[in-house]
Design goal:
The protein is mostly helical and 138 residues long. 86% of the residues lie in helices and 7% in strands. β1 and β2 form a beta hairpin.
Length: 138
């Protein structure tokens, strides 16, 4: 330990002074580092808040767009179902019409009348010709 006299009556310990200065510098550097870190963290938090705000606004816009798209989609689905039902009804009506026409034609073919006799005779002659051709082939 080195001691010296700076003023008459005061004796300073050089090691103590060095330790005091080192401690002062350490406190100063620590405070400066804490301040820089606090500023960096504050900037980072502000940036994250801005990103969060942008994302929230984007989410609101996307949800609004989705709702706008769902309305026409539902309308199209409804129109599609209506069209399916309409086509099914038309098919049923046409089937019934064909059935009724066929029934009337078959009922008319079985009845004997001077009007139907030539057409019945023609059909039966064609049928006989097919039978004879089939028997000749076998």
């Amino acid at each position: 330990m080195t001691r010296f006299r700076a003023r008459p009556g005061l004796i300073f310990d050089l090691d103590e002074q060095i330790q005091l200065r080192v401690e002062e510098q350490r406190v100063s550097f620590s405070a400066e580092a804490n301040q820089k870190a606090a500023v960096a963290v504050a900037v980072e938090i502000a940036d994250r808040d801005a990103q969060l705000k942008e994302l929230a606004e984007t989410l609101i816009t996307v949800r609004a767009n989705e709702l706008e798209l769902r309305i026409p989609h539902r309308q199209l689905q409804s129109e599609k179902e209506s069209l399916k039902l309409e086509v099914a009804c038309q098919l049923d009506a046409e089937r019934n019409e064909i059935f009724e026409e066929t029934k009337l034609q078959s009922d008319g073919a079985l009845e004997y009348s001077p009007k139907t006799k030539p057409s019945v005779m023609k059909v039966s002659s064609q049928f006989r010709a097919r039978i004879f051709r089939a028997s000749d082939l076998s």
